[in-house]
Amino acid sequence: MDCATSLKEQVIAAKAAETPLCIVGGGSKAFYGRKVQAGAELDVRQHAGIVSYEPTELVVTARCGTALAELESVLAEHGQMLPFEPPHFSGGATVGGMVAAGLSGPRRPWGGAVRDAVLGVTLLTGKGEILRFGGQVMKNVAGYDVSRLLAGSLGSLGVILEVSLRVLPRPVVEISLVQDVDAKMALQRLTAWQGKPWPLTASLHDGERLWLRLSGTEAGVAAARSSLGGESKTCESNMVTTLWQNVRDQRLPFFTQQQPLWRLSVSPATQALMLPGGQELVEWGGAQRWLHTDATAEQVYAAASKVGGHATLFRGHEGCGVVFQPMAAPLLALHKRLKASFDPAGIFNSGVMVEGL
Questions:
Q1: 26 Cβ contact list (under 8 Å, min separation 6)
Q2: What letters, b where the CB count within 10 A reaches 16 and e where it falls short, cover 18-56?
Q3: 80-139 pLDDT, tens per residue?
Q4: How many angstroms separate the Cα of 3 from the Cα of each of 47, 66, 76, 107, 321?
Q5: Is the dihedral of CA 197, 200, 201, 204 positive or negative?
Q6: Nearest by Cα to 161 from 238, 242, 100
Q7: Are 205 and 185 in contact (CB under 8 A)?
């Protein structure tokens, strides 16, 4: 019996017994989201391997249990990469968990999000059906790009058995620049640079300095370096390479603080939110903020909403309470309809995003 068939039979049995299932992969992102309803583990790690890879077509298809490090290593052998620079957080990260979490790294504003790279999926639903999107379309979700809907769904809609991803060539040249400016000046510069034809692929204000990464052709990087200014550091330097990996995987000292860690999505020009005890780390050209604060969840959600953004309690919540910013009624209704379509018995990762869903 192959792994996909074994997983299907476990789902059918759980549905019949009305037993909830907790989808388990490498566990690298187990901290993310709310605690799921107690139930049997559905371990997908044995369903692994790269199904197909066409470097000339810039497309790779891999099973959910495939180690993310293995996939990236194979791509690197052909001078290619995943455009969204997914975080690993630990050595156990898998391809399925990468898509289910929907998290992107420093390259996100310039390379796109996880969902932008997803071309197709094979999904095991809560009904015990194996569906391929977008070849086979369910009538009650017609009009939705199901493949992309699964990115960030945290396993609440089903098991992503396989995923096809768009990949990109690795840049010819990559350097980093550092500028000694405060956060306010950094945000002003990042806002002014929006729309400029410069090969920016990462930015970070660490509280004291602004770091920029440039990736592309020699001519393009050289021109941007001349225009942007700042001290240049090549990415052959272990220190610089490690910096961006530590940003991606949250290994900077900023992330080791004991306060809860919030992730804010705001307009890039938004100034620092004035919250009690707040300390910010700024990424994505100003659009993503990591925040430690003594403020209550209600205060953080209100502050984010006031500037047209939203907030997520990323770490330090112990899986309880409201982790994701409360949804507006129409959006919550949509989530309920999707859950009812793919997992009507509610056996998959129940409550991981919203209590009772």
A1: 45, 67, 68, 90, 91, 92, 93, 94, 97
A2: eebbbbbbbebbbebbbebbeeeebebbebbeeeebeee
A3: 999 999 999 998 999 999 999 999 999 999 999 999 999 999 999 999 999 998 533 333
A4: 5, 13, 28, 34, 35
A5: negative
A6: 100
A7: no
Its sign, for the CA torsion 34, 40, 45, 50, is: negative
Q: Are 66 and 49 in contact (CB under 8 A)?
A: yes
Specify whether the CB–CB gap between 185 and 240 falls below 8 A. Answer: no
> How many other C-beta atoms lie within 10 A of the C-beta of residue 102?
19
Whole-angstrom Cα Rg for the chain: 21
| CATH code for the structural domain at 3-169 | 3.30.465.10
- What average pLDDT does the structure give for the chain? 90
Element (H, E) at 41: strand 40-43
Q: What pLDDT shows up at residue 1?
A: 65
Taken as a whole, the chain contains a residue count of 357
- Report how far residue 227's alpha carbon sits from residue 141's, in angstroms, rounded to the nearest whole number: 48
Separation CA 316–CA 324 (nearest Å)? 13
The confidence score (pLDDT) of residue 231 equals: 73
- Residues 6 or more apart from 35 whose CB is under 8 A from it? 318, 319, 320, 351, 352
Strand order in the sheet with 118-124: 50-54, 59-63, 159-166, 118-124, 130-133
Q: Does domain 173-248 have CATH number 3.30.70?
A: yes
Whether the predicted pLDDT of 239 surpasses 90: no
Question: How far is residue 357 CA from its own chain's centroid?
Answer: 21
Q: Which position has the higher pLDDT, 73 or 294?
A: 73
Provide the CA 13 distance to its chain's centre, in angstroms: 31
The pTM for the full model equals 0.92
| Six token digits for residue 160 | 């992503």
Which tens digit of pLDDT belongs to each residue from 314-355?
998 776 677 999 988 999 998 899 999 999 999 999 889 888
Q: Which residue type is seen at 82?
A: L
